[in-house]
Amino acid sequence: MLFEKEIAKVGYLSRSVPEGIDLKEAILKMKKEKNAVILAHYYVSEDIQSIADFVGDSLALAQASKKAAADMIVFCGVHFMAETAKILNPNAKVLLPDLNAGCSLADSAPEAEFIAFKNQYPDAVVVSYINCSSEIKALSDYICTSSNAVDVVNSIPKDKRIIFAPDKNLGMYVQKVTGRELILWEGACIVHVNISMDKLNVLMEAHADAQVIAHPECLPEILEKASFIGSTKALLEYVQTSPVNKFIVATEAGILYKMKQAVPNKTIIPAPALESNSCACAECPYMKMNTMEKLYNTLYYELPEISVNEKTQAGALKALNNMLAI
Length: 326
Ligand code: 13P
Ligand code: SF4
Hints:
Elements: H1 2-11, H2 23-33, E1 36-41, H3 46-51, E2 54-56, H4 58-67, E3 72-76, H5 79-88, E4 93-95, H6 104-107, H7 111-119, E5 125-129, H8 134-138, E6 142-144, H9 149-154, E7 162-165, H10 168-178, E8 182-184, H11 197-206, E9 211-214, H12 220-224, E10 228-229, H13 232-241, E11 246-250, H14 255-262, E12 267-270, H15 292-301, H16 310-324
Parallel strand pairs: 1-2, 1-3, 3-4, 5-6, 5-7, 7-8, 9-10, 9-11, 11-12
Helix pairs in contact: 2-15, 4-5, 13-14
The chain binds 1,3-dihydroxyacetonephosphate and iron/sulfur cluster.
């Protein structure tokens, strides 16, 4: 077993799972034996969402990570989310099925460049979207998610200047809702900005009875068309509570799984992407790096494990707690 674990460190990702195995059953069994909890974002594949202990948006997942009583958290999402789980629950072993599951927003803000940017506005309060590295979190006063960005900005005294990073589109949306002028970092989500305005117009004409609902990471012209704007969780709740029966959903298509389960009698149409892929819709390539095979290997080898250095951990935790207190 030890020998296998050593091999695993070198090539566990490419190792095939035992032949003929029922992956779902094996994962659930191992999860129980190891006192692990599987947390998953709405954007991962349906098979993973179907066996996860908890599926949620970034805020709900951060809260679930914090209160998880398990020895091990297997985070089916992207790297910054697993890092956040480790920061909020440092005693748990936090695993991410694929270490390459990054995020274009987190990548857009390297630490050195962010320090130089921040130094230009020494008196500004820094609000960072949770989609950033632990180093950027540690350089921030507050973290926010798409669920609470408006509330976080509104909680800051009106006379304070605010740096908002790294998502410019979310920042512009928050600016519009709060009426506050924000100093914006130039980052974007490659998935949400890939939603095609032209194709959306065609789809809206074909489905004149549908309402467009959108995630605030979308471009402003897409948000202009939306009857409702919110985080993935808010979008899911909206389709359940709205009297409307048909929606065009401008976010990552993974959310459609839970939406169709929640409102099987309503029509849910994914907004079209600029570039064609298998579903002709918006799909996050990083979220889709999570597979059942990798999840099995992650649980089996207990790798790859997420770690955050002590100093970064303390700074990032402070900023995250400032958010959770709001
Ligand atoms: P939420 O989970 O806050 O809706 O954010 C969506 C997203 O892009 C996560 O990476
Ligand atoms: Fe990052 Fe966008 Fe993927 Fe979310 S959907 S993880 S913001 S690249």
